[in-house]
Amino acid sequence: MLACVLSVLVLATAPAVPTTPATPVALTAPAAPAAPASEERLPLPRDLQELVDLARALHEALDRTPPPSALVIDGPSCPAASWELASLAGAVGPQVRSETTLTVPRGTTLEVNTFSGTIGAQAWPRNEVRIVAHHGRRDRLLPRVQNGTLFVTVVSRRGEPAFGDVTVYVPEWMPVRLSSVESRIDIDGVQAGVDAGSVQGDVVARQTRGAIQVHSIEGLVRVLDARGRVSASSVNNLVRLERVVGGIDAESVNGDIQLADVESAQVDASSVNGSVFFLSPFQPRGRYRLASHNGNLRVGVPRGADVDVSVRSFRGAFQNDVTPPARGRGEAGRFVFTLGGGGSSLELQSFQGLIQLLRSNELPLPQAPRPPVATEEENK
C-alpha cells in the first residue's frame, strides 16, 4: 500500500516538463531490507493520512528528476482512495468539463466557494444561471439551492474542496459572493452587488454596479469602471481603483494604493507601509483623506481646484508644487492652506514618508499591472 501511495505522489507533485512521450516506467518504492528473524516487524499505520505524510517525507529526500508522463504501477493495484489523497499534492489525471444551466427565482444570491483554481462571475441578459467548470476527473461540480442562495463548489469524491476553474454566468439582478483560498477571482458586469475575497489570489472587478467589497491577503485587488460604493483591501499587495463613481474605502498594510480617474465625493485611503497615489478631480464639497505610516503620498491637483488642504507629517517631508496657495499657515509638522475658493476637504497624513502635492499634468500614472491570462472559457 505504501509503495502505491508513494508512486502516485511522486507523479503528482513533480513539476511538468514538456518532453516527447517516454516509455512507461514502473514507479515503485524500493523494497525495505528484511528484518532480522529476532525482530518484530512494525505494522504500517492504519490511517491513510499517515501514509501520505510518510510518502511526502520520502519524496522530499528523493532526487527531483521529473518522472515520465505515463504511470505504470508495478505491483498490486492502487485503490481509488490513493488517487484522491494524491490530489492533495496537485491535480491528478486529465481535466474534465462540467456544465449546467439552472433557472432560479428573482432574488436568489450566488455564492461560489473553491479551494484553488479560478472563479469567474459574468453577467448576461438571461434569467438563468449557467455554470461551467473544469476540474479533475474524479472531482465533481456541486451546485445546490438553499434558503434563497445558489451555492456552487467543486468537491472530491470524499466531499472535500478540490481544485477547479469555475465560471458562472448570472442574471444582471443577481448579487454574488465569491471566496477562495488560492483562486484568482474575476467579476465582469455584475449589476447587483459583489462581495469577493481570496487569501492568495488576485481579485479583479470590471463594469460593476452597486456596492462592491473586494479583498485579498496576498493578491492584487483591482476595480475598473464601477458605479457604486467600493470597499477594497489587500494586506500584502496593490490596491488599484480606476474610473470608479461612488464612495471609496481603500486599505492595505504592505501594499500601495492607487486611485485614478475616480469620481467620488468621499475617499478614505490608507496604508501602513505602502504609498498612496491619487490622480482624480475633486468633487464640490468632497471629503478626501489619504494616509500612510511609512509610505509616501502623491496627489495630483488639477488647475482651478477649490480645496481646503491639511497636511501633517511627523518625521517626513512635505513638497508643495501647487503654488501659490491663497492663504496658509505652517506649524511644526503641519500645514493648512486653501487652494482656489476652497469647499472640498483634503487631509494628508504620513508619519515618516514624503507628501507631495503636484499638478495633475506633472504626475504620471503608475503602470497598470499586467492582466491575468485568460482561461479557456474566457477565450471562447
Structural overview:
This protein has helices at residues 2-13, 48-61, 80-86, and strands spanning 95-102, 109-114, 116-123, 129-136, 140-146, 149-155, 163-170, 176-180, 184-188, 194-198, 203-206, 212-216, 221-227, 230-234, 239-245, 248-252, 257-260, 266-271, 276-279, 287-292, 297-301, 307-313, 317-320, 327-331, 334-339, 344-350, 354-359. It is mainly beta and 380 residues long. It folds into 3 domains: 2-34 and 41-89, no CATH class; 94-219, no CATH class; 253-380, no CATH class. It has a 14-stranded mixed beta sheet with strand order 5-6-2-8-10-12-14-16-18-20-26-22-25-24, with no helix packed on it. Strands 1-4-7-3-9-11-13-15-17-19-21-27-23 form a 13-stranded mixed beta sheet, with no helix packed on it. The longest helix is centred in the N-terminal third of the chain and has 14 residues, at 48-61. It is elongated and about 65 Å long.
